[in-house]
Automatic annotation (TrEMBL):
It comes from Delphinapterus leucas. This is Mitochondrial import inner membrane translocase subunit. It is a peripheral membrane protein. It comes from the Eukaryota. Mitochondrial intermembrane chaperone that participates in the import and insertion of some multi-pass transmembrane proteins into the mitochondrial inner membrane. Also required for the transfer of beta-barrel precursors from the TOM complex to the sorting and assembly machinery (SAM complex) of the outer membrane. Acts as a chaperone-like protein that protects the hydrophobic precursors from aggregation and guide them through the mitochondrial intermembrane space.
Amino acid sequence: MEGGFGSDFGSSGSGKLDPGLIMEQVKVQIAVANAQELLQRMTDKCFRKCIGKPGGSLDNSEQKCIAMCMDRYMDAWNTVSRAYNSRLQRERANM
């Protein structure tokens, strides 16, 4: 299974486990899970904030509210992420 996580998980092709490959695959899985959680939280928050009465379609004000809410949410997430990564780098440098 190319690029997937089938029975060859962590295998280097020779049947032996490759710890580096396993770590990379785990990192990818974590990144995907984090992205899914971010999207779910953003959707929930913006839906609650912008949609008064769910219906068959969004009116103009709801569309604008959703777009602005998602932009602000992503900006805030990016700011927090940069600050967190910066802090991690400073802490690693002080070790």
